[in-house]
């Protein structure tokens, strides 16, 4: 029963991927050759690759530098800096992009795109590196210093090698997000696969051009995902050692304190103050024309969609998450991995696949809320599966056995043991899905029924017609809704900070 | 309170890896029995079958006269067996307080009764003020005691303890053992303790069941087990041993430690003898004719007593256990005499690569 449900969920998750594969077979090798080996595709590949590489390098430098300052040096106000360095995550990338381009229209270049996506994505590297720094045994650093190594040599020869796994994980996360990024790059008019697919779709609906581009993009994602899975397998070893129990003696910066503070201030200023300031500016400009009713109804629609998707997606994650822990085996691992695989497909591809499938197979479902909810489920299942899975791990079968020996029936155990233990994990998973849906743009643009406006699409249509003042309020509401999740993220990692 | 009778229980996991190969065990009502064996011998599997978490492939389990598993009908589910279970790490429900954990198995009306919880906390020697704490705020020893109180709360006919002290450090282990023993004795519950720690089994239990490779090897009281183990394997498992090759002639074993009287009748011929280190006595060498002189290889001083490692002239090493008063120094020659009698085992019963066995 549980297995059947998990299989059904996995099948849904793999639907877009299956569509791309089926399409490729249908097209045949010669058709693919004709559509893929074109100068246009080469150009997009070059654009995408250099943006991904540049962003990953920049994010690593910023993320590791900031994490080292906050975790291992005497820089003043480390707690506050930590929160400020995670905070850019509360601003969706396309809002970052809006904030910059609306102030500096000249940013529609490679350098501009690199700047904007780096500023919105560097916390993806910063967070795991901070966590890794906390897991490092300070005794190793002390030993290295005792052997005569300088602070720089300690960083390079002792800390950096141990951060490798966290750094790789963060880099892959940045790369996968960037491959799927649509809104931010479209707004900056920087052509990559996602924006090209969207333009093709606008021009020819679901023509072969869009689908083959989607196929190439999916291939890129799968390569990265394979790397991620291989890395995840090793990560458990890296985390095997117990966390540091002894407080770390921070490196005294002395004369370098001022430059360090300046560096952090510039980073936070660019990644947080500029977007928020820009939003405030446009908000003030457009305040007179603000339509409160429209804003309220759009927020209501978004919250409703988010809540429904959260409940639905978490419910769908339960069988896979449960089986992955309680019935560990080849099949259940495969089922769990299928949900990850399905969601590594960018939102634009998921949307494209669902549009085509719903038109061909179930025309009565085309442009309805269920299809949109299905897209959300496919995209955000892993967030729910991961949290449900770790919640099930917190409730080992031992508790069931003990409760049974105390005379508790199966139903009684579900009520008094299993549900209370799973509830926090299920809640956290639902909250993560909810927040992701609230700021989702790409799939919503393509799949929302005519007349259904979410915060993201309303923001998008206003900013596309360069009505920045009308767009800003929607962005502000999105940032406010996403902020709690960011606070949670930073608080979780803040525990055990060394002061 | 009721007795426990296990008859011919077998259990295999997967394709033909037998874990239990026909275990018979009787635990009298109100007694404390330890299931002792090295890890992997099947003792935890047996415990889980008794508790009802697992089913035997064959054989029966009976509580008093009631067959609960392997009988003609369906086996009785765990929740209807009335067996208390104390898992290895305590297994306290993390979302409930101490009071919530202890009262978990009580009927609904009694759950809110704080008096019953206080009574049980007192029984296991804990402060009643702990009732409102969460499990993660307790020390390991306190968690184990709460787990025992939780198991005892519904007044079970039998309590099963699955290596409950193995995760505690030495000092805490002693204290927790004493408190748990007292609580079990006070309620008069029949108890079965699974352990791989021979000192724990010998000190706590009324009877010890030694298990090996899925079989029950010996079931007896702790003293008999230590003094008359079934075979050399059991002997070396339940305590430090001196095992020597010997030649038995007319009730006396001739071995590297001289002539030692043997226990019971044993036919003349080659044999292996077992002595305990505390049976060896050391004195200044010199006077007596035919005395065995050994060289002191090393001394491990423990405070209350000490272990002296002795190199015997016939190229073997044995240990003597001495009180901590006057100890020889390393390198000195000492005369070794044996107090009491030796246990004799047939030569075939070797295969014990114990470190204390003479080489060659």
Brief summary:
Chain A: It is a multi-pass membrane protein. With 499 residues, chain A is mostly helical.
Note down, in words, how this protein is organized.
The complex is a heterodimer of chains A (499) and B (360). With 499 residues, chain A is mostly helical. Chain A has two domains: 1-15 and 290-464, MetI-like (MetI-like fold), CATH 1.10.3720; 38-275 and 486-499, MetI-like (MetI-like fold, Orthogonal Bundle), CATH 1.10.3720.10. Chain A has helices spanning 2-36, 39-72, 78-86, 93-103, 110-121, 123-135, 138-146, 151-180, 183-187, 193-204, 208-238, 257-286, 292-326, 330-343, 347-361, 369-393, 397-405, 410-438, 442-447, 455-464, 468-494. In chain A, helix 1 (2-36) crosses helix 15 (347-361) and helix 2 packs across helix 5. With 360 residues, chain B is an alpha+beta fold. Chain B folds into two domains: 4-232, P-loop containing nucleotide triphosphate hydrolases (Rossmann fold); 242-345, Nucleic acid-binding proteins (OB fold (Dihydrolipoamide Acetyltransferase, E2P)), CATH 2.40.50.140. In chain B, 22% of the residues lie in helices and 35% in strands. Chain B is built from nine helices and 20 strands. Chain B has a six-stranded mixed sheet, sandwiched between helices. A five-stranded antiparallel sheet of chain B has the order 13-12-11-14-20, with no helix packed on it. Chain B has a five-stranded antiparallel sheet with strand order 15-19-16-17-18, with no helix packed on it. In chain B, helix 5 runs parallel beside helix 6. Chain B is globular, with a radius of gyration of 24 Å. The termini of chain B are far apart. Classes of the chains: A mainly alpha (499), B alpha+beta (360).
